[in-house]
Amino acid sequence: MTLSRNNSHQMDEPSPLPYTIQNLHAGQHYIRDGTTIIPCQSTTDPLSLPPSQEVIKVLSKQMGRLLLQLDIAWVTKEGSGVLPTEAEAMRLVFNNTDVPGPEVLFASFHRVNEIADPQQCDIRDSNPPDGLIGMTIAPGIPMTDEWDTLDDDAKESICYQLWDLVAKFRTIAHPQNDTNVRTRIYERYLHFGGLRYKNQLPRMLPRSEHSVFTHADIAPRNVMVDEENRVTGLLDWEWAGWYPDYWEYAQIMRPAFKGDWSEWMERTAPQRWDLRGIGAARKVLF
User: Fold this and answer.
1) Digit-coded pLDDT (tens) for 202-250
2) I need a surface site. Which of 96, 215, 219, 240 has the fewest CB within 10 A?
3) Helix/strand/coil (H/E/C) assignment for every residue in the chain
4) In terms of pTM, does the model score above 0.90?
5) Is the CB of residue 250 less than 8 Å from the CB of residue 278?
6) Tell me: the pLDDT tens digits for 13-68?
7) Which domains, and CATH codes, for the chain?
């Protein structure tokens, strides 16, 4: 009987799996040992493991990109579409402002090889698809987990904090106007069959005489806060760069967020722009 119970217990133990993208699932924890992984509990203490092993938490897995937390040390973002521009944007903000966010620890980028099945590619292969960014862990909790539970005072406070952070990285200026951006929007609008505002759109689009450094994707999912509702980190600088000074506002006002997030950001904005032209273009382009 004892032998039978032992055999049954052994059969219930998870078997090691190859360390590949398809074997990792969002929200799950694993113990990695070389090229294999074993599912584990979220309470597993990395300090209790031998040096050859580490605990991996899959923070996100979507659109060919993987966001992992490794032990209690760092976070990696890797996969398709992870480009050098994101790492450079993070370094630029970290080195030139006091805006809270991850520090880039290492990064490598490669051309995508011809792989029959990218899902079977070993994540640590010497030539991974596109890119890999290693960064420090941003403290706090994602604002998506907190926003709907906050009262009006807390929401207002967070929004004012975010606009203050925007003002800080906007000082990293780049001397150019927005003519190219407006031309591009108009050309794309016509290309995709936009007819209603064919003649009016160039006049409807907001104008700017200079560009400023812009995050371009400030949303609850990319904001970390602590228990006292202080912003502790801005994440995901994938779309960051120099844009017309109205672009941050336009991106935050996108009709893509549930709840009253955009309403509070609009209410606390230090400056507002007429976005009717952007809205007309988005109905066709986005």
Assistant:
1) 888 887 777 899 999 999 999 999 999 999 999 999 999 888 889 999 9
2) 96
3) CHHHHHHHHHHHCCCCEECEHHHCCCCCEEEEECCEEEEECCCCCHHHCCCCEEEEEEEEEECCEEEEEECCCEEEEEECCCCHHHHHHHHHHHHHCCCCCCCEEEEEECCCCCCCCHHHCECCCCCCCEEEEEECCCCCEEHHHCHHHCCHHHHHHHHHHHHHHHHHHCCCCECCCCHHHHHHHHHHHHHCCCCCCCCCHHHHCCCCCCEEEECCCCCHHHEEECCCCCEEEECCCCCCEEEECCHHHHHHCCCCCCCCHHHHHHHHCCCCCCCHHHHHHHHHHC
4) no
5) yes
6) 778 999 988 899 999 999 999 999 999 999 999 999 999 999 999 999 987 889 99
7) 12-135 (no CATH), 141-285 (3.90.1200.10)
At position 1, the amino acid (one-letter code) is: M
**Residue positions counted in the chain:** 286
